[in-house]
Each structure stands twice: as structure tokens, then as C-alpha cells.
Give the backbone structure.
Amino acid sequence: MGKRMIIAVDEELCIGCGRCVNSCPTSALYLENDKAKLRDEKLCDGFGSCIAVCPSHALYIEEREAEDFDWSILSRINFEDFLDKLSLHYKPEELRAK
């Protein structure tokens, strides 16, 4: 455990759209009572794909004490899906659903 960059959610700004959840390649986020929540800080890669897709600017990245990223998750996820989700916000709208 040490300081690292990790996602944080401003629940006052969160509108519960779920875009962050769908864009997170490591499934670190989930919705509870229409608010984004960090499931497990070990799953947060800190890449910020969720920040890029948030229409209400409810997500931000901060440096704080957190458990180390669980690199073994990369062996448990589909790497093509991981890359696709990381780049989702760069794609034109008509290609995002494909």
C-alpha cells in the first residue's frame, strides 16, 4: 500500500448514467442507488477512461493512499475488450455501440 493515482467520485455530481461503469476495463466501478461507486481500489488502473466519458464531470483522479493495483487482473480479462474500453471515448458515437 502506498500513494498512487486512483479514481474518486463526487456523488453530488453523479447522475447515474452508467457510462463510467461501461467504460472501465477492469470493472472497478459499479452503480448503487444511481451513483457510481468504486468496487475495489485494487481494480482501479488510474487510466481515467471513466473520467473521459462522464457527462457530469463527477469523476476525477486523485493521489492518495490506496492498495496497489492488482496486475493479475490483466490475466483474467479479455485484453482486446480492455483496450477497446480504454479507447471508447476516442471513437465516434456511431462506432461506440459496435
